[in-house]
Amino acid sequence: MANNNQLITQGMEFGELTKEDITTIRQTLAKDCNDSQFKLFMSIAKSSGANPVMNEIYPAVRSGQLTVQFAVEYFVRKAKESPGYSGHDVQLVHDNDEFKMHQEQDEEGRYYAVIDEHSWAFPRGKVIGGYAIAYREDKKPFTVVMEVDEVEHFKKSNIGMQKTMWTNYFNDMFKKHMLRRALKAAYELNYDDEVTVGESQGSNDNDEFQRNRRDITPNQDVIEHGSQQNDNPEPQQEQKPSKIDQLKDQMRTLFTQLGITTNDGIKDYLKKHAPDANPGTQKGLIAINQLLETNLEMLQAQASNDDALD
Fold this sequence. Notes:
alpha+beta, three-stranded antiparallel β-sheet, disordered C terminus, globular
């Protein structure tokens, strides 16, 4: 067993992570992952520069599906490494607080929020909202202002850990959620730009790893032909949709859930995140859909931090 663990963790060191660190990660944070999922998780961690030991990234396995989650600590570090970083602030607003804000418009016509007053005394009452501010040199402060109603749905999440964290540690989770949003917007920290999900170091590991692969990049043919299918609503007589057609339909649905609804938007996304996939094959479409599903789960998981999670 020891030799098998050494083989699994071999060659996964990066940054300050040692072989011993990788073994510890395998036995603790990633104890629910199978070997293929662990390799995939460490590949994402390495390509994004997120350190599992520092609680910046960790894996979650739900119903056999791997979800890679980034903590707010990752975005804080990336913001601090960005040019012009000048700090950040995050506060909760309670129903007994004095709170006032307004919007202003910058030179380019974009609106931004300005906090005029936030003062309080005890007892403060229930949390009703909050705000996070990201400061950057030569830029207007970027402020995220939210009401509690906007995040109540996380308490009803079907992701067990996310529901637990938001129910038991609501104030902390709410602050992390707002801060992540502010930092990502102010410093253009899009995790899609950081994460590259590639092949394993042995391209023929096993069938399970192949199911978890994210090769990505359908060419223009998939996008254009996929969008044309809806132009003919008449079903074919006595013929069930092919597996590839079903996968294309699934791909379009996933893009819609990500908020990408135009052909140009889809093309740009795939060009950026999928340089090697073969869209003419069932395997290639499966890989594309797996990437989209992972991105959707990351978006949901990130809101839970400790992280679904942003």
